[in-house]
Amino acid sequence: MTSETAGGADQAPLAGSAPGVRARLGRAVPFVPGFLMLAFLFLIPMAIMFVFSLWRTNSDFNVVADWNLNNYARFFNQPVYLRTFAKTLVMGTAVTAAGLALALPFNYFLVRYVSRGLQRAVLLAVIVPFWTSYLLRVYAWQAILGETGALNQFLMGIGLIKEPTTLLVYNDTGVFIVLIYVYFPFAALALYAALEKFDFTQLNAAQDLGARPDQAFRYILVPQIRTGIITACIFVFIPILGEFLTPTLVGGAEGNLIANLVVNFFRQSQIPEGSALAIVIAAFVTIVLIIFRRSLRVEDVVTRG
Amino acid sequence: MTDLMRDYSRRQFLKVMGAAAGAVGLGSIAAACSTAASSSAPAATTAATAGATAAASSGAVAPSATALPTGTFNWMTWGDHSYPAQLDAIAAANNIKANSTLFSDNIDAFTKLKEVGGQLDMVSGDALWVPHYFEAGLIEAWDINALNVAKQLYSIARSFPIWTKPEGYLGYPFGWSPVQIYYDPAKVSPTPDSWEVLLDPKYKKRVVVEDQPVEIMAYMGKFTGAANAYSMTPDEISKAQDALRQLKPNVLTLANQATDTIAKLKTGEAWIATGNLGTEARVKDQGGPDLKVFTPKEGTIGWMDSEMVVKGGTNENLIMPFLELAEQAEYIAANFMLNGRPLFNEAAYKILVNQGQQERADQFLYNKPETVNTMSLKGPGTSTQAVIDAFNEVWGA
Question: Which of B110, B217, B388, B393 to mutate to test the interface with A (most CBs of A within 10 A)?
Answer without folding.
Answer: B388
